[in-house]
């Protein structure tokens, strides 16, 4: 039976999530975001794209398949981690991080509050920092278009094994991080036209 830990990977190449990179680059500052942890990094494709732009970045993921691909390129930077646990992998515990990114992860988790608490604890070890999260965008105009075009079965496909189990708006995602003491400082839509975005980002500070 498929789980959220088993996902389709493209051998470590930027594929379906490549549209997220321009938005991430708008949200990151190489002078401020010095040491980044990619939580739920998958096969490391996005992390490596950011490395190519000069960012210092490490990654963790629950998928043995994804981490095996990531480690082929940078074995010292990617580590297996059960995202339902609240501790860093042993190979990362000696580091501190001023930034956490997490792209297209929170919609797969049964316990998103525990996941945000984990991110908070990691950043608190550094004395604070920034959390940048993306998830599929949901909003009035997009939802209306999905209804008009009869695309809800595709958008909320229950036949997708290991797929999305929670559907976030800017309001609910902001509430999730603010519960843990973060302050949301920026919103960024990503992919497609404005208000029909494929995904959305929030950046929050601790």
What features would you describe in this structure?
Keywords: Methyltransferase, Transferase. InterPro entries: SAM-dependent_MTases_sf. The protein has seven helices and seven strands; from the N terminus they run αβαβαββαβαααββ. Strands 3-2-1-4-5-7-6 form a seven-stranded mixed sheet, with helices on both faces. It starts with 19 loop residues before the first helix and ends with a strand. The protein has one domain (20-205): Rossmann fold (3-Layer(aba) Sandwich), CATH 3.40.50. Strand 6 (183-190) and strand 7 form a beta hairpin. It is α/β, with parallel strands linked by helices and 206 residues long. It has helices at 20-27, 45-51, 64-73, 112-124, 140-148, 152-155, 170-178, and strands at residues 35-39, 56-61, 78-80, 99-103, 130-136, 183-190, 199-205. Helices cover 29% and strands 20% of the residues.
